[in-house]
């Protein structure tokens, strides 16, 4: 498992990446913050930030699909 960070509306939420494929991922969110249907995901040690769409949700677990347009991680690291 890798650590990740979910970004949306000037907010960041930590998560664990439970599984990862070219088309999506399974995530476990570390807090009870309401996660929107679309957000950006940054995964530790990867130079990109992925745009995600929530496919399913169960308590603090999410299944997301990746949109094909990937963004470069900001040069300063976390936003």
List the helices and strands and how they pair.
Layout: E1 2-8, E2 11-20, E3 24-29, E4 38-43, E5 48-58, E6 61-66, E7 71-72
Antiparallel strand pairs: 1-2, 1-4, 2-3, 3-6, 4-5, 5-6, 5-7
Structure summarized in a few sentences:
Helices cover 0% and strands 61% of the residues.
Protein architecture, described:
Residues 5-70 form the PilZ domain. InterPro entries: PilZ_domain (IPR009875). One of its GO terms (molecular function) is cyclic-di-GMP binding. This protein is mainly beta. The chain has a single domain, classed as Thrombin, subunit H (Beta Barrel), CATH 2.40.10. Helices cover 0% and strands 61% of the residues. The chain has strands spanning 2-8, 11-20, 24-29, 38-43, 48-58, 61-66, 71-72. The protein has a 6-stranded antiparallel beta barrel. A hairpin with a 3-residue loop joins strand 2 and strand 3. The radius of gyration is 11 Å and the shape is globular. It starts with a strand and ends in a 7-residue tail after the last strand. The relative contact order is 0.26.
Salient structural properties:
79 residues, mainly beta
Label the structural class: mainly beta
Largest sheet: 6 strands, antiparallel, barrel
CATH arch. level architecture: Beta Barrel
The CATH topology name reads Thrombin, subunit H
Number of helices: 0
What percentage of residues falls in helices of 4 or more residues? under 10%
Task: Please state the average pLDDT score.
Answer: 89
CATH classification class:
Mainly Beta
Q: What order do the SSEs take from the amino end to the carboxyl end, as H and E?
A: EEEEEEE
Radius of gyration: 11 Å
Number of strands: 7
Low-confidence stretches: none
- Strand percentage lies at over 45%
């Amino acid at each position: 498992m890798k650590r990740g960070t979910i970004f949306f509306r000037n907010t960041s939420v930590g998560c664990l990446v439970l599984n990862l494929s070219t088309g999506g991922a399974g995530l476990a969110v570390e807090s009870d913050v309401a996660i929107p249907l679309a957000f950006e995901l940054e995964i530790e040690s990867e130079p990109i930030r992925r745009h995600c769409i929530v496919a399913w949700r169960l308590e603090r677990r999410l299944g997301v699909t990746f949109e094909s347009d990937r963004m470069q991680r900001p040069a300063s690291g976390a936003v």
